[in-house]
Design goal:
By secondary structure, this protein is α/β, with parallel strands linked by helices. It contains 30 helices and 24 strands. It binds flavin-adenine dinucleotide, NADP nicotinamide-adenine-dinucleotide phosphate (NAP) and flavin mononucleotide. The site of flavin-adenine dinucleotide has 20 residues, from β13, β14 and α24.
Length: about 1000
């Protein structure tokens, strides 16, 4: 019985479900129809507009001297034409609209058009309510701050709420505009300025000046909130009345400020409004007066003064304009007797446009500023003014810059560690030798969409020196350019002449991927390749690849443009030397990367231009024996606000060995403590100095310049002129030429012998270049990256590094020492009672543990490649302690001897004991006759590995040597897939590649 009821009920439910499905299907169909109709309407409106324009011009032509008979229909058409744009706008208010720039920036490309009148009104009413509630909250807040409590912290919250309120208003207003509101002009702009102003107030530090202005500002806020409450109250009444009368425009908007339709009911508000405007002027003048005080150091004072001035001007003139306009309307209405007894609902067009007001305010602001600063008592100069150029506003148009400076070749570089940038500089310098003018440019600093306009410059050419990183990714500074190239489809680059030199390394899977991509993509977009793509391999000989490519490249450029090489082989200086004799040492850089004195007064956020000085809290040797030095270094980041994740890299800025620097000074016979600036001769260049200036030679050679790598051929070429022995000069010229003997000599004498600049100067006694030219030519000393060997979950205030000290004998009998590792080795926890510190910042990576903790993890990292896995193991242990279910965690580690360099032995065995490491596999390569490597151990446990990978969704991680180990491990995994997955070789290769693209096979490898 009950089953029957059940079955019947189920049948009814089934029927209803079918009905529901049908209704939903119809709904989807309608949606599709609606979307089609919307498209149709939009395109019809566009076509109507176009045709209307054509008809308009036809009518205009016919209107020239028409007969009386023709004049009448022409006039009628003209009248109708005038009404059409409004009709189109009304229609468009109900069609999906493209977001304006501001909305696109804030919300992206989401559709914010409300498609029914009700929802538009509802949205607007909600907007009004939002304003009212917030105004009341702000009023109460200001009241409390003014009368009861005086904490900077509370003021900051008030200002923060103001920033948020105004930002939200601007967004809501933009949405209203998209939906047909006619709000425009000053009232919207006014909110942008208010948001900016509140932001500036938020940053104004506590001090006497702040305290002086605080109460004036709070009283003003109180007053403004009060007036706004009055306005909201009366506006809602008016709106209600207008709506009842059916006179309201679709989306007339009540903004604070004055609108003409409020005239009747709100005349009494005018004095309040004007009083508020003059209060703004008063605030502005008070602030300008404060800015003149000798104690005034805060930039916020002047900026807030300017904001108040702009607000006053905008509000005052707009209100005056509205009043005048209204008076005219009223006069018309009087003349028009009783026909127009209802209040007009048109929103007022201010007399002045936004731009007029902005420019006018800016001009007045600047005049006031000039007037105030003119009267400021001249400070007594403490030291002679620097003659380095003040930082000018950056030009983002490379076309304008090229036109201004008469350049026709631009060399863009995508570079992380400076090689691409160096090549770009060399190519731009070369251009001069070939009778052209070039400039090197960072794509991040320029508007790359301008490439389409490069043809405006005669005989123009864009060269791209692009390095590849990671999994075939662009460098950080080329990321935006890469994204742009990917996004554009309709760009026509047919006037662009280009060529690409790619920088890469064959040991990486995606060899030169970025250079290849740029070369191909530009061709697809119609640009003209005028010379073949150059491929530079850092694993082979990058310098030689570049020199060979360049040697063929320039003649073909000359041929292409029909120009002749000038043959001018003389050295071209890019910077001029300025020695400072009477400079206050407080103004001299002493190793900072960006802001002067940033090491003394540290301020977050920390990055490559502003590294954090992290104290070293642990520095211990990891290996038990052997002549190498493997070390574990811990950096304390307490209080720095630096956050990191396991798998990230820490970058450190090392310094060169002081003995080497002293030796260089001695050989060149210079006083290393002279303060200098190297100033770019090209005043238009964005790069004013090769390194932070003014500084001393000692600081430059210690902190900023790479003195330990073998110099490149261009350095030898430029230095050759200073060799007094003709033989030395000839050898240097030969080494920098592209002849086979020259290349071979460079290869053996410089690269093969690992001769750095010091060794070259020692072995060529006749070569004594001026130190400033040497400083101009040497590349910048780069930060060194280390895979973080700790987990932020366990050690949020600590970053660990695991590194091996680089030291090797060269064929000339010298001992070369790695810059960073030897510097780190000597960073003792306390150095003469002082804490040793390391300038560092974090670089995010993609090397991440799986999101799902239950996924098994296979980690393969011999030698220092174990670094990130120490972090991973700590993190998996922490997850376990939190009671999370954690999947298998398998480690493959390799070292030379068990009793020598089995680093982190105790930690690893402890992790295995606790079950955090479910498997610990170690390959001791030299403890037996036959080498045993991690890949051999992988094969030994292939069945289990294959199950983890193929059935259990394991994530594989490889870290360490890119040259051999990473490749061998990949091959071993392909072998396993082939054997146990029953695949062909190609299938197995694809299988592993797919794991990589899915993010289940990650590598953190270096050479
Ligand atoms: C993403 C990333 C992560 C890294 N993580 C780590 C890590 O966790 N641990 C770690 O130890 N390193 C790591 N490195 C390498 C590290 O950044 C440094 O390159 C390394 O420590 C050497 O720096 P250095 O300044 O002491 O040596 P440098 O002064 O830069 O000298 C190194 C150069 O010396 C030459 N050289 C080195 N050894 C020899 C030799 N035997 N014979 C001849 N020439 C030689 C090579 O040209 C080499 O490029 C990582 C690198 C990258 C890119
Ligand atoms: N550019 C630099 O200045 C610099 C500095 C430091 C490290 N590195 C790179 O980082 C890597 C790791 O250096 P490290 O000193 O930490 O390691 P390491 O101690 O030299 O090597 C770790 C283990 O890996 C083994 N190994 C060698 N070749 C391998 C291969 N093809 N596949 C698997 N295992 C292999 C070694 O065996 P055997 O030695 O017995 O063959 C050793 O047992 C180095 O290979 C180097 O490429 C570069
Ligand atoms: C961590 C790392 C990852 C790299 N990845 C790649 C790569 O995927 N493909 C490639 O061809 N070269 C790769 N390279 C090599 C660099 O592109 C090459 O050394 C280049 O000369 C660097 O130029 P830059 O100094 O201008 O940054 C990599 C180098 C490093 C250090």
């Amino acid at each position: 019985m009950s089953l029957k009821v059940c079955l019947e009920e189920w049948e009814r439910l089934e029927e209803d479900h079918k009905q529901l499905q049908e209704t939903h299907r119809m709904y989807l169909q309608k949606l599709e129809e609606v979307s089609k109709l919307q498209k149709n309407c939009s395109s019809s409106i566009s076509s109507q507009r176009r045709r209307l324009k054509e008809v308009s011009s036809l009518v205009k032509r016919c209107s020239k001297g028409p007969s009386e008979e023709d004049a009448k229909p022409l006039n009628e058409i003209n009248e109708k034409i005038k009404t059409r744009p409004n009709a189109f706008s009304e229609m468009e208010a109900f069609l999906p609209n493209k977001n304006g720039l501001y909305l696109s920036l804030v919300l992206g490309n989401v559709n914010v058009t409300l498609l029914s009148k009700q929802s538009k009104f509802a949205y607007k009413d909600e907007y009004e309510k939002f304003k009212l509630y917030l105004t009341v909250i702000l009023l109460l807040f200001s009241f409390v701050c003014y009368f009861f409590v005086s904490y900077r912290f509370l003021d900051a919250i008030l200002n923060f709420v103001l920033v948020w309120y105004y930002c939200t208003l601007t967004i809501r207003e933009s949405i209203l505009i998209t939906n047909g509101s006619r709000i425009k002009g000053w009232w919207v702009f006014h909110h942008y300025i208010s948001a900016f102003f509140s932001g500036v107030m938020l940053t104004w530090p506590e001090g006497d000046l702040y305290k002086t202005f605080r109460n004036q500002f709070l009283a003003y806020s109180l007053y403004q909130s009060f007036v706004q409450c009055l306005q909201c109250y009366y506006q809602s009444g008016c709106l209600y009345r207008l709506r009842a009368l059916g006179e309201r425009h679709n989306m007339d908007l009540t903004v604070e400020g004055f609108q003409s339709w409020m005239w009747k009911g709100l005349t009494f508000l005018l004095p309040f409004l004007f009083f508020g405007h003059f209060w703004q002027l008063f605030n502005s003048l008070s602030l300008f007066r404060m800015a003149r005080l000798p104690d005034c150091k805060e930039w916020q004072v002047m900026v807030c003064g300017l904001c108040f001035l702009i607000l006053f001007m905008g509000n005052f003139f707009t209100t005056v304009a509205v009043v005048r306009h209204k008076r005219v309307n009223m006069a018309d209405m009087d003349a028009d007797t009783a026909a127009h007894t209802e209040p007009s609902v048109e929103e007022e067009e201010p007399f002045f446009s936004n731009l007029d007001l902005l420019l006018f305010s800016l001009i007045v602001g600047l005049v006031v500023y000039w007037y105030m600063s003119r009267k400021k008592p001249e400070p007594i100069p403490e030291f002679k003014k620097l003659d380095t150029a003040a930082p000018a506003a950056r030009e983002t148009s490379f076309i304008e810059k090229m036109k201004k400076t008469g350049k026709n070749i631009i060399v863009f570089y995508g570079s992380q560690t400076g090689t691409g940038e160096e090549f770009a500089n060399r190519l731009s310098k070369d251009a001069q030798r070939y009778g052209m003018k070039g400039m090197a440019a960072d794509p991040e600093e320029y508007e790359m969409a301008e490439l389409a306009r490069l043809s405006q410059i005669e005989n123009s050419l864009a060269i791209f020196c692009m390095a590849t990183y990671g999994e075939g990714d662009p460098t950080d500074n080329a990321q935006d350019f890469y994204d742009w190239l990917q996004e554009i489809d309709d760009e026509d680059l047919s006037g662009l002449n280009y060529t690409v030199f790619a920088l890469g390394n064959k040991t990486y899977e995606h060899y030169n991927a970025m250079g290849k991509y740029v070369d191909k993509r530009l061709e697809e977009l119609g640009a003209k390749r005028i010379f073949d793509l150059g491929l530079g391999d850092d694993d082979g000989n990058l310098e030689e690849d570049f020199v060979s490519w360049r040697e063929q490249f320039w003649p073909s450029v000359c041929e292409h443009f029909g120009v002749e090489a000038s043959g001018d082989d003389s050295s071209i200086r890019q910077y001029e030397l300025k020695e400072h004799t009477d400079l206050n040492m407080n103004k001299v850089y002493s190793g900072e990367m960006g802001r002067l004195k940033s090491f003394e007064v540290q301020k977050p956020p920390y990055d490559s231009k502003n590294p954090f000085l992290a104290p070293v809290t642990v520095n211990r040797k990891l290996n038990k024996a052997g002549d190498r030095h493997l070390m574990h270094v811990e950096l304390d980041i307490t209080g720095s606000k630096i956050r990191y994740d396991s798998g990230d890299h820490v970058a450190v800025f090392p310094t060169n060995d002081s003995a080497m620097v002293n030796k260089l000074g001695q050989i060149l016979g210079v006083d290393l403590d002279v303060v200098i600036s190297l100033n770019n001769l090209d005043e238009e260049s964005n790069k004013k100095h090769p390194f932070p200036c003014p500084t001393t030679y000692r600081t430059a050679l210690t902190h900023y310049l790479d003195i330990s790598q073998p110099p490149r051929t261009n350095v030898l070429y430029e230095l050759a002129q200073y060799a007094s022995d003709p033989k030395d000069q000839e050898n240097m010229r030969r080494m920098s030429s592209s002849s086979p003997e020259g290349k071979a000599l460079y290869h053996s004498w410089v690269q093969g012998a690992y001769r750095n600049i010091l060794a070259i100067l020692e072995d060529m006694p006749s070569l004594r270049p001026p130190v400033d030219h040497l400083c101009e030519l040497l590349p910048r000393l780069q930060a060194r990256y280390y895979s973080i060997a700790s987990s932020s979950k366990v050690h949020p205030d600590r970053i660990s590094i695991c590194a091996v000290v680089v030291e090797y004998e060269t064929p000339t009998g010298r001992t070369n020492k790695g810059v960073a590792t030897n510097w780190l080795k000597n960073k003792l926890v306390t150095d003469n009672g002082h804490k040793s510190t390391v300038p560092m910042f974090i670089r995010k990576s993609q090397f991440r543990l799986p999101f799902k903790t239950t996924n098994p993890v296979i980690m393969i990292g011999p030698g220092t490649g174990i670094a990130p896995f120490m972090g991973f193991i700590q993190e998996r242990g922490w997850l376990k302690e939190q009671g999370k279910e954690v999947g298998e965690t398998v480690l493959y580690f390799g070292c030379r001897y068990k009793n020598e360099d089995y680093i982190y032995q105790e930690e690893l065995e402890e992790a295995e004991k606790k079950g955090v490491l479910t498997q610990l596999n170690i390959a001791f390569s030299r403890d037996q006759e036959q080498k045993v490597y991690v890949q051999h151990l992988l094969k030994n446990s292939k069945e289990h590995l294959w199950k983890l990978i193929h059935s259990d969704n394991a994530h594989i991680y490889v870290c360490g040597d890119a040259k051999n180990m990473a490749k061998d491990v990949q091959t071993a995994l392909q072998d396993i897939a082939e054997e146990l997955g029953g695949m062909t070789r190609t299938q197995a290769t694809d299988y592993v590649k797919k794991l990589m693209t899915k993010g289940r096979y990650s590598q953190d490898v270096w050479t």
